[in-house]
Each structure stands twice: as C-alpha cells, then as structure tokens.
Specification:
This protein is of the alpha/beta class. The protein folds into 3 domains: 201 residues, FAD/NAD(P)-binding domain (3-Layer(bba) Sandwich), CATH 3.50.50; 111 residues, FAD/NAD(P)-binding domain, CATH 3.50.50.60; 105 residues, Enolase-like, domain 1, CATH 3.30.390. It has 12 helices and 21 strands. The chain starts with 5 loop residues before the first strand and ends in a 22-residue tail after the last helix. The structure holds flavin-adenine dinucleotide (FAD).
Length: 453
C-alpha cells in the first residue's frame, strides 16, 4: 500500500477547514492544513465577527438616542471615533487568529502557509513543495462577485468595508442580499448617509415575503434610502475625488464609497481541480454527494466552496460529518431543512424553516399566525421601531414548519426555537409552553388566531 505524508490534507484554514483539521487530528490522524492568508477565514477576518462587532457599534447610536426617554441626560451629541473602532476590531481579530493557531498546533496539525494547488488525486503543491495525503479536503470558501460595470475599478467589496479610510460620509450599497442590508444598516447607524440600490423590487431574495417587506419599511424608517428596480450604468470619479454613479433611469448619486454586495462565488480558480479530475458545477462550485465526497473518491469538499447554505455553522457541521466518516465511527447525513439563520440588520431578522410560499408548495394547507407590535422598550424610548413575528404551521401534522422574526435580538431568540422545530414541535406544543413575561419572545407562544384564508 502507498505510504502518504498525511492521512488528511486540508486546503483552507477557515471555518470548515480548521474544524476538520482539528477534529481529525484529535482522532489520531496525521493532518496538514494549508492557508494562504490569515487563519479563521472569511468569518473571522472579513465576515461574521467583524460585521457583528460593527453592528454592536452601530447599535450604540440607537441607544444614545433612546436614553433620554429613560431619564438619561446626555449633554453633547456623542462623538464616534472610526479609527478607534477599526483599531479595536483589528486587535480582537488578531487575537482570534492566534487562538486558531494555538488550537491547531495544540492538536498537532502541521500548518503550511501558502497557496495550495492540486497535483493529482493524492498530491498537493504549496509553493515548490509537494505533499501526499490519503484524503484531501477542499475548504477554500468563497469570494465576492461583482458584475461587469463601467468604472468597476472605483468600487469596493465587503472585505474592504472594515478598514475604509476615511469613514464614508456618503455610502452607496449595491445589492439586496443579507450582506448588502447589514452593511447598509451598520453604516447608517455609524452616521453615514446610506443609499441602497436593488435591481429587483425587493430586498432579501429567499426570505419570507412579509419579512422582506417589513424589514424594508424599518430600514427606510431608520433613514436608509432604498431604491428598487434600479441599476448602475457607469461609475466615475469626479475632480473633487467623490464617486458618481449614473443610474439606468438617468439619475445620478454621489458617494464617497460604493460597495458592491452582489453575491459570492466559490473560491476554486487556480486550485488546479482539473489536475485531480474534480468536477465543478456551473458557477465553479465543487460538486459533492451527500457525504461531501467529490467526483474523485479521495477528495472531499465542505463549506462555501460547495454548499447551498453559505453559513459558518453549516461549514462546521459539514466538516464534522466528513471527519466522523473518515476517522470516527459514524456515517451520517446532514439535514438542512431547519437551519436557523439571522440577519444583523437594525432591527435583526431571525428565521428558521420554511417561508410561507415554500411551505404552501411543500405541505399544501398551512395556518399562518402573525403579529406586529411596538416592543415594551420603545414605549419610553421614543423609537418608532416595530417588531414582527410569524409562524407557519402545517395543517395536516400541526407541526411548526416556519418561524420568522424581525426585531431586537431576533437571532438570539430564534436559536432556541430552532431546537424545538428540529425536534418536531407542533403548534399545540407552542401553545402549551408558558411564556416568559415581559419579553418579545413570549409572543411566539401566545399567538392563537390564524390569519384568515
Ligand atoms: C460580510 C460577511 C458576513 C457574514 N456573516 C455571517 C454570519 O453572520 N453568520 C454566518 O453563519 N455566516 C456569515 N458569513 C458567511 C461565512 O463567513 C462563511 O459561510 C464561512 O466563512 C465559510 O467557511 P469556509 O470554511 O467554507 O470558508 P472560509 O471561511 O472562507 O475559508 C476559506 C479559507 O481558504 C483559504 N484559501 C482559499 N484558497 C486557498 C488555497 N488555494 N490555498 C490555501 N488557502 C486557500 C482562504 O484564504 C480562507 O481563509 C458571512 C460572510 C461575509 C462575507
């Protein structure tokens, strides 16, 4: 039998790759991990973590504005120091990079810095060195996609938003997905004048229709200028340094920064997949079976490079399935049906399970329960922000198959409900659960009257 340098060679030190490498090594496997940038990948460096930190920063603006209703006298308008926030964020991310490094080193994973490329089904090259492995895991993630537009050299993608210099007083966000909406909310909260351009009639494709409309209303109410059915024809830089976007309808928008948050594509270019014979899909994603095996039996792929649900916890879960199958004792499949997720706009979205439209297609008859109200906090805060909640129940089984919320801490609230939904909770179970009073979350267990129709 051929002797390999490693049992597992992982390409990519992001969410999926780090988890797979560490867990495989803990099973006693000889593991190497190649990373061309910082450990932690998208989530730690330019995704979930810095984004959430900046979302907290933006939230203080609301808190300062609302404090007067609770008796606090804040004499001056509070000043925001962008440089300070960037430095503090960079320090925390560096700390996390170090935590990842020591976790991997502690598990005896061999770390290799550099760009990895396939040589064949069992061999990877990093710079001028070749490494052989019994199994290879592709965990190279994704990267921003920007459509062709004249003046493209003037725009930025989400990776650049955390270190902009100077702070963009006027920000134009192009796109209507969750990253576009989150960035719009964050920079609006931090004091920028924000316009969001979406080429279709709604934001957040794939989310429940009521949620999409409700959030759009809240974002507009918070001061974001949302423009639908609009595309940019050309971007130019003016003599004063400002950018100018010419819109298809003849209007123009000036901005200091133009962010294109127009989707992400799998990171497979330059990986040498052809050399190993790994099949890819139409958008370059690695094609895998239900056990994350590619068209080449020794090669697996997890996370954004191959998955349909591009989320950190999904990448982690897929990595665990691969490791358990290769080095543990269990061979299982993931069920993606009730993956909960949040959008850290202001207010947040939390969602789990089916949208109303998808539930009607899948289950036929459904009951819809929904509620919209002003949260207790805002009775004194002076804020006009409202909260929205919706339950979708399969009539035949009484099972709650969709749960959606737009409101403060929606992500925190929905996580717990996701456990109940995975366990098959019915509407009767929700109804017999005692609420926690006074909270917004109790509304989910007290909605009694389905919507007519
Ligand atoms: C702005 C933004 C916000 C997000 N917010 C959230 C959120 O709130 N919640 C959530 O769950 N998800 C969020 N995500 C998505 C989340 O970051 C990804 O789903 C997750 O990071 C995917 O993990 P991964 O392991 O597949 O890839 P990544 O984390 O992207 O890691 C891939 C790694 O591979 C390295 N690499 C690539 N090619 C090579 C090569 N040839 N050789 C060596 N190294 C290579 C890259 O440098 C990178 O470090 C967000 C993403 C973005 C962009």
């Amino acid at each position: 039998m051929r002797a390999f340098d490693f049992d597992l060679f992982v390409i990519g030190g992001g969410s999926g790759g780090v988890r797979a490498a560490r867990m495989a090594a803990q099973h006693g496997a000889r593991v190497a991990l190649a990373e061309c940038a910082e450990l932690g990948g998208t989530c730690v460096n330019v995704g979930c973590i810095p984004k959430k930190l900046y979302s907290y920063a933006a939230g203080y603006a609301e808190s300062f504005a609302e404090a007067a209703g609770y008796g606090w006298k804040i004499p001056e308008p509070p000043a925001f120091d962008w440089q300070q926030l960037k430095e503090n964020r960079a320090r925390e991310i560096k700390r996390l990079n170090g935590v990842y490094r020591s976790m991997l080193e502690g598990a005896r994973v061999q770390l290799i810095q550099g760009w990895a490329q396939f040589v064949d089904a069992h061999t990877v090259r990093v710079d001028d060195k070749e490494f052989s492995a019994k199994h290879i895991l592709i965990a190279t993630g994704g990267m921003p996609f920007v459509p062709e537009v004249a003046g493209r050299e003037h725009i930025v993608v989400s990776d650049a938003m955390f270190d902009l210099d100077p702070f963009p007083r006027r920000l134009l966000v192009v796109g209507g997905g969750y990253i576009a909406c989150e960035m719009a909310s964050i920079f609006n909260g931090l004091g920028a004048e924000v316009t969001l351009l979406q080429r279709t009639a709604h934001i957040l494709n794939g989310f429940d229709e009521d949620v999409r409309q409700f959030l759009a209303k809240e974002m507009s109410g918070a001061g974001i200028d949302l423009r639908f059915n609009t595309v940019i024809d050309m971007i130019t830089r003016q003599d004063d340094g400002r950018l100018c976007a010419m819109l298809s309808r003849g209007q123009r928008i000036e901005a200091d920064t133009i962010l294109y948050a127009t989707g992400r594509v799998p990171n497979t270019a330059g990986l040498g997949l052809e050399a190993a014979g790994v099949a890819t899909g139409p958008n370059g994603s690695v094609v895998v079976d239900a056990h994350y095996r590619t068209s080449v039996p020794s090669i697996f792929a997890v996370g954004d490079v191959s998955t349909q649900q591009q989320l950190t916890p999904v990448a982690l879960a897929e990595a665990m399935v691969v490791v358990d199958a290769l080095f543990g004792k269990s061979r299982r499949k993931l069920d993606y049906q009730f993956t909960p997720t949040a959008v850290f706009t202001h207010p947040n979205i939390g969602t789990c399970g089916y949208t109303e439209a998808a539930a009607r297609m899948k289950f036929g008859k459904v009951h819809i329960f929904s509620s919209e109200f002003r949260a207790l906090r805002h009775t004194l805060s002076g804020s006009h922000e409202r909260t929205f909640m919706k339950l979708i129940v399969d009539q035949a089984s009484d099972r709650v198959v969709g749960l959606h919320m737009v409101g403060a801490d929606a992500g925190e609230i929905v996580q717990g409900f996701a456990v109940a939904m995975r366990a098959g909770a019915t509407k009767a179970d929700f109804d017999s659960t005692i609420g926690i009073h006074p909270t917004a979350a109790e509304e989910f267990v007290t909605m009694r009257e389905p919507m007519p129709g």
